[in-house]
Amino acid sequence: MIEASHLYKEFKTPVVREGKLSGLRTLFSREYRLKEAVRGISFNIERGEFVGYIGPNGAGKSTTIKMLTGILHPTSGTVTVGGLNPHRDRRRAVRRLGVVFGQRSQLWWDLPVKDSYDILAEMYGVSPAEKRERLDRFAELLDLREFWMTPVRKLSLGQRMRADISAAMLHDPDLLFLDEPTIGLDVHAKRNIRQFLQTLNKDFGKTILLTTHDMDDIEQLCSRVMVINHGQLAYDGTIRSLRDMIGLPTVIRVKFRGGFRVPEEWREEATDPSGLPFRVTSIEENTVVIEADRREIGTMEIIRELGNWGEIDDVDMEEPDFEEVIRSFSAS
Ligand SMILES: Nc1ncnc2c1ncn2[C@@H]1O[C@H](COP(=O)(O)OP(=O)(O)OP(=O)(O)O)[C@@H](O)[C@H]1O
């Protein structure tokens, strides 16, 4: 559905001069600073996938999305979307894809929401019957009717986002690009948007590429995640193996029924924990908390070992915080 091959984008910005007449001198300057925003990215996304595209600030996410959607020309490399080149076949390509930028609305600011849909339907050649049917469906799933006649500028952020996603889907594209669709939303609004995206993907087979800083978006929606760092793909795979790869500790709380005994070598104060595949971080009343590197040891092995310490009542696992995973990429 999307094929990106060695995508590369550099920006040339004039070097800003200091001092008197600086503006004028900058204007006529031939000195440029090069910024390599995306440095040779390749990937394929199949029909029906829901892919998260994440990375630290300034990593090159928006630049990639802009190249995939035909807004920006790659400096080199190629991209096809549904078999089309989004730049050369711009007119045909835009019919296949929908785009939502969380920070910017594509709706007409002073017009009632409904009027924006009328204009978009006209632009994309959506028939009145199709428009009615789709809007009825979106209205039901996203509660659009409560602000149908409200000018876009008066919508709350959550309402605007619901209106924007519906607008992006009005011409029924196969592919949806979302850049930070849940930014600034409250928990309820986020849940609403996520449910809708899930329905689009699961029930209507839409292919979705989602950029977000909200790791819950990724955890709840995406089967695959790509991490970009310094303009390059640092990872492409499942969230689980990403966590495993980075090796942040999984925290496991084991509650014992009745008495238990922590062997000497596993005690918190053990002087040499280096040879052990996990670490006891605290011992509370009837609970032992350990941290394990799951690249080193499987959960079953841990539970088997702890089963020797006493009768296990309950096990609770806390996966590493995803923010931490991303931070560890920014640090690299
Ligand atoms: N039009 C432009 N001119 C010059 N530099 C740019 C331009 N657009 C982006 N950049 C630079 O390219 C790099 C990548 O930017 P991009 O917006 O793609 O990152 P991002 O991963 O989307 O970041 P964020 O999460 O902060 O939105 C940044 O260093 C940015 O300053």
Automatic annotation (TrEMBL):
- Signal peptide residues are none
Keyword set, alphabetical order: ATP-binding, Nucleotide-binding, Transport
Q: Which domain of life is it from?
A: Bacteria
Q: Which GO MF terms does the UniProt record name?
A: ATP binding; ATP hydrolysis activity
In Pfam terms, one family for this protein is ABC_tran
- Where the record annotates domain ABC transporter, the positions are 16-255
Q: Which InterPro entries match?
A: AAA+_ATPase (IPR003593), ABC_transporter-like_ATP-bd (IPR003439), ABC_transporter-like_CS (IPR017871), ABC_transporter_ATP-binding (IPR050763), P-loop_NTPase (IPR027417)
Q: Which Gene3D superfamilies would you find in this protein's record? A: P-loop containing nucleotide triphosphate hydrolases
Matches recorded under SUPFAM superfamilies: P-loop containing nucleoside triphosphate hydrolases
Q: What is this protein called?
A: ATP-binding cassette domain-containing protein
From which source organism is this entry?
Paenibacillus oralis
| Source lineage | Bacteria, Bacillati, Bacillota, Bacilli, Bacillales
